C-alpha cells in the first residue's frame, strides 16, 4: 500500500525502522488480542498528551505554510485533532474510569517528550518540509497499520481501534496528507526532489520520527 509518491520514497529510505514501527509487538498484540488492557490504557493516556502536542505541531505548520491551500489543509488537521481525534481517547478512558482532567494532568513519559518535541523542533529549526517529514510517519504509519490489521485481525478487543484507522474517513485523511506532502515537495524542490541537496535530510527526519514511534509503542508495553 502506498499514499502518494513522496511517502513511499521516505519509507524505503527508512529501511528496517519502518518494519519495526508498523509490525511492533504492541501492534501485533492488538491484532491477535493478546495486548494487555493495562498496556493499551497506558498508551492511550500518553497518546492523549501526544495529540495535544501534535495539534501544536500542525498549528506550527499553518504558520510555516507558503500557500493558502497548505494553510487550509493544516488548519483542518488541527481542527480534526482537537475536536474528533481526541474524543476517542477521552471516551475510551472515561469508560475505564479516567477523567479528561486526569488525562491532561498525566505526566508525560520520556518517549512521549522526545517524540513530540522532536517534531516541534523540526518545524522550528526547519521549514514546512522538515516539519512534514517529521509528521508523516505518524499519520501514514497508522493508515498502513489499520489497513493491515483489518485484513489480518483475529478475535481482538481492539477491533474499534483497528476499524478507526482502517476506515474510509481515516484512509481519506492519509491520502489528503500524502497529497499535501507531494504538493509541498514539488512547490519547494521542483520536479526531481531526490536530486535536491535537502533530500537526505528530509529522509533522515522521517527515519528519526519513525524510530520515535517504535519507542512510543515500547513505552506502552514496558510501563
Ligand atoms: C504515537 C502516535 N502516532 C500516531 C498517531 C496517529 N495520529 C496522530 S495525529 C493523527 C491525525 C492526523 O494528523 C493520527 C491519526 C497517534 N495517535 N499516536
From TrEMBL:
Pathway stated in the Swiss-Prot or TrEMBL entry: Cofactor biosynthesis; thiamine diphosphate biosynthesis
UniProt KW keywords: Hydrolase, Thiamine biosynthesis
Enzyme class: hydrolase
NADP among keywords: no
Pfam families to which the protein is assigned, alphabetical: TENA_THI-4
Domain of life: Bacteria
GO terms of molecular function: thiaminase activity
GO terms for cellular component: cytosol
Annotated ranges, domain Thiaminase-2/PQQC: 16-221
Gene Ontology terms: biological process: thiamine biosynthetic process; thiamine diphosphate biosynthetic process
Gene3D superfamilies referenced in this protein's UniProt entry, alphabetically: Heme oxygenase-like
Catalytic activity: 4-amino-5-aminomethyl-2-methylpyrimidine + H2O = 4-amino-5-hydroxymethyl-2-methylpyrimidine + NH4(+); thiamine + H2O = 5-(2-hydroxyethyl)-4-methylthiazole + 4-amino-5-hydroxymethyl-2-methylpyrimidine + H(+)
E.C. code: 3.5.99.2
Family membership: Belongs to the TenA family.
Function comment: Catalyzes an amino-pyrimidine hydrolysis reaction at the C5' of the pyrimidine moiety of thiamine compounds, a reaction that is part of a thiamine salvage pathway.
PANTHER family assigned: BIFUNCTIONAL TH2 PROTEIN, SI:CH1073-67J19.1-RELATED
Name of the featured protein: Aminopyrimidine aminohydrolase
Amino acid at each position: 500500500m502506498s499514499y502518494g509518491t513522496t511517502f513511499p520514497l521516505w519509507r524505503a529510505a527508512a529501511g528496517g525502522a519502518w518494519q519495526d514501527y508498523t509490525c511492533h509487538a504492541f501492534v501485533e498484540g492488538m491484532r491477535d488480542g493478546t495486548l494487555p488492557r493495562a498496556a493499551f490504557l497506558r498508551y492511550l493516556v500518553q497518546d492523549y498528551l501526544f495529540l495535544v502536542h501534535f495539534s501544536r505541531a500542525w498549528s506550527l505548520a499553518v504558520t510555516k505554510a507558503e500557500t493558502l491551500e497548505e494553510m487550509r489543509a493544516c488548519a483542518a488537521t488541527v481542527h480534526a485533532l482537537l475536536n474528533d481525534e481526541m474524543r476517542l481517547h477521552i471516551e475510551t478512558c472515561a469508560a475505564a474510569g479516567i477523567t479528561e482532567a486526569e488525562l491532561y494532568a498525566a505526566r508525560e513519559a520520556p518517549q512521549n517528550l522526545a517524540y513530540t518535541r522532536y517534531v516541534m523542533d523540526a518545524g522550528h529549526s526547519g521549514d514546512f518540509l522538515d516539519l512534514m517529514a517529521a509528521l508523516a510517519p505518524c499519520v501514514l504509519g497508522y493508515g498502513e497499520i489499520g489497513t493491515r490489521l483489518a485484513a489480518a485481525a483475529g478475535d481482538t478487543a481492539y477491533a474499534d481501534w483497528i476499524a478507526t484507522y482502517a476506515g474510509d474517513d481515516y484512509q481519506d485523511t492519509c491520502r489528503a496528507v500524502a497529497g499535501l506532502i507531494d504538493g509541498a515537495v514539488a512547490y519547494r524542490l521542483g520536479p526531481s526532489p531526490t536530486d535536491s541537496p535537502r533530500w537526505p535530510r528530509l529522509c533522515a527526519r522521517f527515519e528519526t520520527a519513525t524510530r520515535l514511534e517504535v519507542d512510543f509503542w515500547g513505552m506502552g508495553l514496558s510501563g
